[in-house]
Amino acid sequence: MILLSIETSCDETAISIVEATGEFPHATYKILGNALFSQIDIHREFGGVFPAIAKREHIATILPMLEKALHESGLDSTPAPELPETIPHITELLNREFGLGDQLMSYHRTHGIPPIDAIAVTSGPGLEPALWVGVNFAKAIAYLWNVPVIPVDHMEGHILASIFDTHHVHKITFPALALLVSGGHTELILMKDWGRYEKVGQTRDDAVGEAFDKVARLLGFPYPGGPEIGKLAAEAREKNLPEYIKLPRPMLNSGDLDFSFSGLKTAVRYGIEGKTMSDDDKKALARDFENAAVEVLVSKARTAVARYGIQSFILGGGVSANSYLRKAIAALSTPQDFPDLHVYLPEPSLSTDNSIMIALAGHARFGEALSPTDFAATIRANGNQSIDTLS
Ligand code: KG4
Ligand code: ZN
Predict the structure, then answer these.
(1) What is each CA distance from 174 to 92, 308, 374, in whole angstroms?
(2) CB of 182 sitting under 6 A from ligand 1
(3) In the chain, what is the greatest distance between 2 CA atoms, to the nearest angstrom?
(4) Which ligand is nearest to the CA of 217?
(5) Residue 228: nearest ligand to its CA?
(6) Most CB contacts within 10 A, which of 125, 202, 238, 260?
């Protein structure tokens, strides 16, 4: 089965073509094509992701990404077909994605219908205008090619990305636990089985990725500053720089599995207010912040692992690219701590948003595929990732 997957929930426009042989979770996978455009350079100027700008950029790049992924896969070489009757309908489906319907039709006139069996598309959570572009585009090509659509949850995609190893998904032991850390989410998910999830902990305010980005901004680094904080913190550890400020560990002893990161960011703000900081001061502060954030994440993870008798622990989402967090989570699996625990980390290129993870989650949910007519093109928005929260 060949899946085409689409991800447009935030600021990455990504399309992949993935061949799956066998049934989930025993299938083997081959990535035939993978195209991703990051809008970060565009959003950086504004200090965060503006949903309307994200939408505009998705509209401008989604067809080139489709073309690139299909070309890479070698599946775009079939001759152009007789155009189906439904053409006016296609342009109508994309009437809110200005010009995209015409672009798609002109592409279609010179290219054939590729041998795609299903289209997986992120239907949420994410930025509403951004999600609509992917979902409407998926519906339009599903009509053109007469293939079913599988709506995919972005967070389930992150989970699958973390357990994916080149050609297959790892066999995990249930109940498993996933710690999902991204720009919009910080949550602990108890996985009772494939697709059976219970949220057992979540942030009460900012997501941890958001806190990384805000602290970076306070230090004068451009959006998204999470990776920069990680880099500076590593340098501070290497140089053994002394503590710059004492920071709180919010909700460390709250007894539940919830998080809070907004107070930590505020503590950083007050701690550096009015100070002139040297480069080493910034490194030390980045390290102090990273220590505080990671300590809370690891402590809650530890509590949850013990509480639910977990043997498979999954770290996923953009912040899982952070090497200090990766090491600290991996270190839970020790003979003294949790000897039976297996920790799954995404390979770095699959840590942040991508469409391979959407293909994997789509395959897992192939049973929920809908015909283009039945696919209602709905989305589940989550304004959390918008610039409004980046103050
Ligand atoms: O999953 P993701 O790509 O997008 C969302 O679904 O939100 O996560 C993006 C978040 C951003 O906040 C970014 O700063 C953070 O992940 N991030 C990192 C690192 N790489 C990405 N945070 C800390 N250290 C990193 N190396
Ligand atoms: Zn994400």
Answers:
(1) 45, 10, 33
(2) yes
(3) 70
(4) 1
(5) 1
(6) 125
